[in-house]
UniProtKB/TrEMBL annotation:
This is TonB-dependent receptor plug domain-containing protein. Keywords: Cell outer membrane, Membrane, Signal, Transmembrane, Transmembrane beta strand, Transport. One of its GO terms (biological process) is siderophore transmembrane transport. The keyword Transport applies. Its main location: membrane. Coiled coil: none annotated.
């Protein structure tokens, strides 16, 4: 009798287990933001369990659950959503912005947002207030002194200077040592960043060392500068206007120190055509200066003497005036920036 009872009990248990598995089904869908842009890296967990998954690069997910289960969708900077599983096998979700947590967000690769305690790589993050604190009109130069290990190299000055950024020193003798610059998920350059108005930058995240290679491949091996510009927020409910003016004055700080004993020439002889400094000693005599003009015999003459800071006359005081006006706003359907 006892054996028969155990057999019936095992049969009932098997039926219950089989019924439970029969109720489980595959749920799939797409997770996007308010602009209908797919969100990669959204966490989906069945509430009360450790069963979960993440959306792929296209914002698509798949998870096995039963009717009545509650799916919890979480993403940094967006409000957590809970959706109860019903008869449908497809559940598409639109995540809403969470204004209270926006200040705690760090933008990493391809626009993925993470909280500071979720990032394990070496990084530094600069907010808008730090970038514009010195009112520097150059976004690259505004990073000087704010990021440890960052070196700014300007290869030529002028209206459109060429600039490179390196992190943690020189790594290669023959290859590039420049950090990768990414502006709003688009690979760019330090020169373009230099032309960007600092007032429209929301944050700059600096990923140091080879950690950037894990996110952007070999191009990020020297570090990555991730720039996020300001954008209007949906649901902001009002239009905001800001105006700023910056005046920059540039002047020569110092000139190279020159010897003042020997004039131009070589081997102790005066050479009117060259600028070498191995001629005879200055004696104040009248000597030909520079190339003859307009004919080969028309030399200009001048005293053979040292002139202190004579190159300074070629430089004028440089001024740059930069005016910035920004508009931002949004409603339930759109954003403006």
């Amino acid at each position: 009798m006892k054996t028969k009872f155990n057999g019936i009990l095992m049969l009932l248990l098997a039926l219950v287990v089989q019924f439970s598995f029969a109720q489980e089904k595959s749920i799939s869908g797409t997770v996007s933001d308010q602009s209908t842009i797919p969100l990669p890296g959204v966490n989906i967990v069945i509430k009360g369990t450790s069963t979960g998954t993440q959306t792929n690069f296209d914002g698509v997910y798949t998870i096995n659950s039963k009717p009545g289960d509650i799916l919890v969708f979480t993403y940094v900077g967006l409000k957590t959503q809970e959706i109860k599983v019903g008869e449908l096998n497809t559940i598409n979700v639109t995540m809403l912005e969470d204004a209270d947590s926006l200040d705690e967000v760090i933008v990493t690769a391809v626009g993925i947002k993470r909280k500071p305690d979720e990032i394990t790589t070496a990084y530094e993050n600069l907010k808008s207030e730090e970038i514009v604190s010195a009112n520097n009109p150059d976004a690259v130069q505004s990073l000087a002194g704010k990021v440890s290990g960052l070196q700014i190299n300007t290869t030529n000055t002028g209206v459109n200077p060429s600039t490179t950024i390196s992190l943690r020193g020189t790594r290669s003798l023959s290859g590039s040592n420049s950090a990768l610059v990414v502006i709003d998920n688009v690979i760019s350059s330090a020169t373009i960043l230099s032309d960007l108005d600092p007032e429209i930058i929301e944050s700059i995240n600096i990923i140091k060392g080879p950690n950037g290679a894990a996110l952007y491949g070999s191009a990020g091996g020297n570090g990555v500068i991730i720039v996020t510009t300001k954008k209007g927020t949906k649901g902001q409910g009002k239009l905001s206007i800001s105006l700023s003016t910056t005046l920059t004055i540039e002047d020569i700080a110092f000139l190279p120190q020159l010897q003042d004993r020997y004039g131009k020439g070589y081997w102790g002889e005066i050479d009117a055509f060259d600028q070498g400094s191995w001629g005879p000693e200055y004696d104040g005599s009248i000597q030909p200066v520079g190339l003859p003009y307009p004919t080969f015999n028309d030399f200009r003459s001048g005293p053979y003497e040292f002139r202190k800071d004579n190159m300074k006359d070629f430089f004028n005081t440089g001024t740059a005036l930069q005016n910035t006006i920004t508009l931002a706003g949004g409603d339930r359907a759109m954003s403006l920036s």
